[in-house]
Every structure is written in structure tokens, then in C-alpha cells.
Design a protein that fits this description.
The complex is a heterodimer. Helix content of chain A is 29%, strand content 26%. Chain A is built from eight helices and 13 strands. In chain A, the strands form three sheets. In chain A, strands 6-9-10-3-11-12-13 form a seven-stranded mixed β-sheet, with helices on both faces. Chain A has a four-stranded antiparallel β-sheet with strand order 2-1-4-5, with helices on one face. In chain A, helix 5 packs parallel to helix 6. Chain B has one domain: ABC transporter involved in vitamin B12 uptake, BtuC. Chain B has a two-stranded antiparallel ribbon with strand order 1-4. Chain B starts with 24 loop residues before the first helix and ends in a 6-residue tail after the last helix. Classes of the chains: A alpha/beta, B mainly alpha. At the A-B interface, helix 2, strand 8, helix 5 and helix 6 of A face helix 9, helix 10 and helix 11 of B.
Chain lengths: 272, 353
């Protein structure tokens, strides 16, 4: 596994008025790696992903994308640089087909009779079929609006869109929050598939079972500071919960010590 | 593994998006075409009624066809623009009086130009262009209020309803503005091979707007915005500019309707579109659009406008007291919304998973 990180967050701080939402947070995400971002409500998880995905700017510290510092003014700039964020509500237009959703805002065109520009629906449908097949989804009704598909399938469509535009880093906000058991399983498998293809993935989740199932590394936030970041194998549910609720663990974790945030020199590779 | 009898049959190992999720495509088509089916039923109904009571044929009459289609054009022009607005999850209440304003301005322009010795044909063309263009002004204000100042469309365009109404009456001096220009009147009353000029213009407008709605990014983004503003904006669509364009388009169509009204009645009237606003919304809704946004077609709107015209004309034709028209159109609106909701439960029920 390549050790050069796609994303490096270095001592990033962000305050909203008197509230210090993020306090000198640092962690890395390597290609092919799934990093789970855990933390209680208000720990700073969404502040952190919004700073990465260009929703707002951070105050201090550096965010490096492939070693180059980034400072996005808009989510569009982040997307153009290969950072795709999939929010809980998915941001799909329910009345449009899979292909139309993949291309929303950048629709391909062709010319009819040599002069009349029209939308290239064939190209959109073909791209939808091909992209979804890469996720092992075989779509039979390419013209159906995405409203016709289930929650898990829609999550897959959002992932497919990120895949199609070749996002290097995919950030997923609570991807399984609204899903049933079998659909959760399916989405977790998709996340693993994304990582296997070499994409870097950040997953924000409350669900520790999900976290342990997909994450290579776990970063725990506590009141805006990074309580711990380490390979997933070095945590167990108990220690993650302790980091989430108190900011420290009272007993040793599984494989030794999860590095506390104050130790600056944690490694970026995963144990895999 | 989930039971395969459940409506969701997803195999976690090899997930498939199957064709079974959703109704058969032909059923969807029929639902889309329901306004046209209803139109045919109405025509059959009036035909049978008319024949049974010993009268003439309702539909196999050139005169009736000309009358119904001409009757349908004015609300149709308003409804075409309104279709875009409603698909985007907005509403434009100002269209009726924008139409009146354009009608008055076009009449005045035609008269002034004639008075300055301009050729009647040239005067007609300039008056039509100017009258249509003046509608862009209230459209611009509507779009600016809704896009930039975040005024709800219902309130913003209700305000413009009053402003346009007052302006139209002021420009007209509280009366109708008669024109004497045979060229201009020919637009409103002329025929080409028996087909009224108004109907030809309406068909052209429908084709252009059908193209715009189905084959351009503007149309595609209008649908996306109506379904989810968040989705559209995260996809990088500039919602402010899109909103502005949509309200400019609907105002422009109202302007065209006003200009044509002046031709048809040889006079500009501030109240030209007063009874037509609700008809235009009704036509869009009967045509299958949802007031919640995200759905609607030009073809459906055309059928909706024809349904209203056939009801209104047909009831007069079979000698029913005219007040029944309101009741009939009102009932049709309610029924079409109920059918729409039932259809949504059938096709979009997965949303509430």
C-alpha cells in the first residue's frame, strides 16, 4: 500500500466566535485507506469534513492534498480537485435518472441534424450502466428516476457518481444512518470496494460496528481535539467509546497503545 | 440475507438494481398521457351529448375546432411559462396582469407608431416586440426578489400582481386602448389554410419550449431544482441565475400572450389576463405537474389547456348555463390532483423507506 498520503490534515483549528470547534487536529489518509472519523455530537466531525470539502475555511494549520496545500473557497473547487463529499441526504435529484444525476451540472451534449444541440442521454445512460457495473450493480431500467430505488441503492448511486468523476478522496457523512441491516452491509461493502480501487475514504459514523467493519484507521475526536488516531486493530469498542466520551482511555487498547493526539509523529501507513 | 419476498431483494454479495423497483414503463407512459386521455373522453362525451340531443357534431366541425383552439391559446401561453416555474417548485401569480400590461403597451406603441407615419406592418412588428419585451421588466423584478432577496415566490409574484395591475390600468387610463391596424388585427384573427395564426404561433411556442425543457441544461436544471435545491446547488448549478431565467421566461410568455390579445380584440386591455391566471395554473396541474415541483411536461400542459377550453366551450355548445363551467373546471383540477397523488403513491412510494 502506498504510504504517500492523499490527504494530510496538519494542526487545523477552527473557531466559531468563542467556540473552538477544532483545536490543532492532525491526521492523514492514504490511497486505498478507509479512515473512520468517530466522535460524540459536537466533537467537531462535521466541522472537520466541511473544512476539508470547502464548505468553509479553517483558521489555522494546513490541509494538504497530495502534498500541496489547499484552501478551497467553495465545495465546487474541492470537487474539481477530486474531493467528493456524500452527505447523509445524498443530494440526488429524485426525478432524474441515474445517468442524469451523475452528470448533473455537467451534462454532455450532442448535435441533432448537424445544428441543434441536445442533451446526450445515450452517453449518460451508458456511463450510468458502466459505472454502476463497476460497483457490481446491474441496472436494468436506466430511464427510471432515482426515486424508484431503495435507500441503499441510492447510496450506491451517490458513490457511483464519485467513482465516475474519479474522486481521489471520498468523504461519506453517516452513510448507513438511515439504512436497514442488509442495505448497511451492502454499503459497507461498497466502501471497501472504493478503497480497493485505490480511492481514499473518510467515513463519519456513530455506529461502532460499522466503523470496525470498514475502517483501516480510526480517528476519534473529543471536544474539537484529536483524542486518538491509530490502526483500527489497536482499538476495541470499549476504548473508542472511552476516547469519545472522555478524551482518553483508562486501559490499554487491543494491540498496544493508540497514539494520543499530542504525540506528533504517528505513522501514516496502515497495518494492511 | 433479506427474505426475497420483501419488496427489497438485495443480495449483499452481488447487489442488483433490478427493473422491478418501480412500475412498468408503459404504466408510467399512460400516467403521463392521462391528460390527453381525459381530453379524448371529454370530446367523446360532448359529441355524444350533442348528437343525442339532435344537434350538430361537436368535434367534426371546422368552426368548433377553430374556436376551441383559439380559445385555448391565451391561457396556454401563460401556462407554458408557468410550467417551468411550477417544475422549479415556484409559482407565478403575476402573469395575468403582466399580460394586461404588455397588451396595453403594445396597443399604445402601435398607435403612436402609426401616428408617426410608420408603415402599419412595421408598426405591428415593433409594437409586438416592444410589448413582449416590456414584460421582462416585471419578470426581472420577480426573479430578483425570489433569487436574491429570498422572498417566497407566492408573495413576491403576488406583489408584482398588484404592481403590474396598477401600472397596466395607469398606462391605459383606466380604459381599453383601441387600435386601428389591419396588420395587427390579422395576427389575432387571420388564418393560413384555415388554421388560425394564433394557433400556428402557439404550436411554434410549444415546440420551442418543449425543446428547451427536455434538451437543454436549463431545462434539466429546472427539473433538478424542483426536486431538490440542495442537490442542484451541490452539483454546482447557480440557482440564483437559474431562478432569474425561469421568471424572465414566464414573464416573456405572458408578454407574448398580451401582445396577441391586442391583435385578437383590436384593443389593449389591462384586465386581458385577469381570468386566465388561474386557468394557466390549472392547465399545468391537469397536465400532470405537481405544485411541489420536479414534474411536469409541455405536452401535459398543452393537454391541460385544451381540457379547460373544451369544457368551457363544450358546456356552452350543449346549452348548459355558463356558471357550470367554473364548477366543472374546479372539479377537474381537484380530481387531477387526486389522481396525481394516487399515482405518486404507486410510483414513488419507495421514498418513504
Amino acid at each position: 500500500m502506498p504510504s504517500e498520503p492523499i490527504l494530510s490534515v496538519r494542526n487545523v483549528s477552527k473557531a466559531f466566535g468563542a467556540v473552538q470547534a477544532l483545536n490543532r487536529v492532525s491526521f492523514d489518509v492514504a490511497p486505498g485507506q478507509v479512515v473512520a472519523l468517530a466522535g460524540d455530537n459536537g466533537a467537531g466531525k462535521s466541522t472537520l469534513i466541511k473544512a476539508i470539502s470547502g464548505v468553509f475555511r479553517h483558521d489555522e494549520g494546513d490541509i494538504l492534498l497530495e502534498s500541496k496545500p489547499i484552501d478551497f473557497a467553495t465545495p465546487q473547487e474541492a470537487r474539481d480537485s477530486g474531493i467528493e463529499t456524500i452527505y447523509q441526504d445524498l443530494a440526488l435529484a429524485d426525478n432524474l435518472s441515474i445517468g442524469e444525476n451523475i452528470f448533473l451540472g455537467r451534462e454532455p451534449k450532442r448535435t441533432l441534424f448537424g445544428f441543434l444541440p441536445i442533451l446526450d442521454r445515450k452517453k449518460m445512460a451508458a456511463a450510468a450502466q458502466e459505472t454502476m457495473a463497476r460497483l457490481d450493480f446491474h441496472v436494468t431500467r436506466l430511464d427510471a428516476p432515482v426515486a424508484a430505488f431503495s435507500g441503499g441503492q441510492r447510496q450506491a448511486i451517490a458513490i457511483g457518481r464519485a467513482l465516475f468523476w474519479n474522486a481521489r478522496l471520498v468523504i461519506m457523512d453517516e452513510p448507513t444512518a438511515a439504512l436497514g441491516v442488509s442495505q448497511t452491509e451492502m454499503v459497507l461493502n461498497l466502501i471497501k470496494t472504493l478503497a480497493e480501487r485505490g480511492h481514499a475514504v473518510i467515513v463519519v459514523s456513530h455506529n461502532l460496528i460499522d466503523v470496525f467493519q470498514v475502517a483501516d484507521r480510526i480517528a476519534v475526536l473529543y471536544l474539537g481535539t484529536l483524542a486518538a488516531v491509530a490502526p483500527a486493530s489497536e482499538f476495541d469498542s470499549q476504548s473508542v467509546v472511552e476516547y469519545m466520551t472522555t478524551g482518553s482511555a483508562t486501559r490499554p487498547t487491543n494491540g498496544g497503545s493508540a497514539e494520543p493526539a499530542s504525540s506528533p509523529g504517528f505513522s501514516t501507513g496502515s497495518e494492511g | 440475507m433479506a427474505s426475497p419476498t420483501a419488496s427489497e431483494t438485495i443480495d449483499a454479495q452481488s447487489p442488483r438494481i433490478a427493473g422491478r423497483s418501480g412500475p412498468h414503463p408503459i404504466l408510467v407512459r399512460i400516467a403521463e398521457l392521462r391528460a390527453w386521455l381525459f381530453l379524448i373522453l371529454l370530446i367523446v362525451f360532448f359529441e355524444i351529448w350533442s348528437r343525442a340531443s339532435g344537434g350538430d357534431s361537436f368535434i367534426f366541425s371546422i368552426y368548433n375546432l377553430q374556436s376551441i383552439t383559439v380559445f385555448a391559446t391565451a391561457p396556454l401561453f401563460l401556462a407554458l411559462g408557468q410550467t417551468f416555474v411550477i417544475i422549479s417548485a415556484g409559482i407565478d401569480l403575476s402573469l395575468g396582469f403582466i399580460m394586461g400590461l404588455s397588451s396595453v403597451i403594445a396597443a399604445h406603441s402601435a398607435n403612436y407608431l402609426l401616428g408617426w407615419g410608420v408603415h402599419p406592418l412595421l408598426a405591428t412588428l415593433i409594437a409586438c416586440l416592444f410589448g413582449s419585451a416590456i414584460a421582462l421588466l416585471p419578470g426581472l423584478v420577480n426573479g430578483w426578489l425570489i433569487a436574491q432577496l429570498k422572498v417566497p415566490p407566492f408573495i413576491g409574484t403576488l406583489g408584482m400582481y398588484g404592481v403590474a395591475r396598477g401600472s397596466a390600468y395607469l398606462f391605459a387610463g383606466g380604459m381599453t386602448v383601441a387600435i386601428e391596424n389591419d396588420w395587427y388585427s390579422a395576427i389575432g384573427n387571420g388564418r393560413v389554410y384555415g388554421v388560425p395564426v394564433l394557433v400556428i404561433l402557439a404550436v411554434i411556442a410549444c415546440l420551442i419550449l418543449h425543446y428547451v425543457l427536455t434538451q437543454t441544461r436549463f431545462g434539466q436544471h429546472t427539473y433538478a431544482m424542483g426536486a431538490s435545491k440542495a442537490a442542484a446547488s451541490r452539483a454546482g448549478i447557480n440557482l440564483k441565475r437559474l431562478t432569474l431565467k425561469i421568471y424572465l421566461l414566464s414573464a416573456l410568455m405572458a408578454g407574448v400572450a398580451g401582445v396577441l390579445y391586442t391583435g385578437r380584440f383590436s384593443a389593449g386591455a389591462p384586465q386581458a389576463g385577469e381570468p386566465l391566471l388561474l386557468d394557466s395554473i390549472a392547465a399545468v396541474v391537469i397536465g400532470g405537474a405537481s405544485l411541489f415541483g420536479g414534474s411536469g411536461t409541455i405536452s401535459g400542459t398543452v393537454a391541460g389547456a385544451l381540457v379547460i377550453a373544451v369544457i368551457q366551450y363544450g358546456l356552452v355548445f350543449i346549452d348548459v348555463e355558463p356558471f357550470w363551467q367554473f364548477i366543472a373546471v374546479g372539479a377537474v383540477i381537484i380530481v387531477s390532483v387526486l389522481v396525481d397523488q394516487a399515482q405518486r403513491r404507486l410510483t414513488g412510494g419507495r421514498l418513504a423507506e
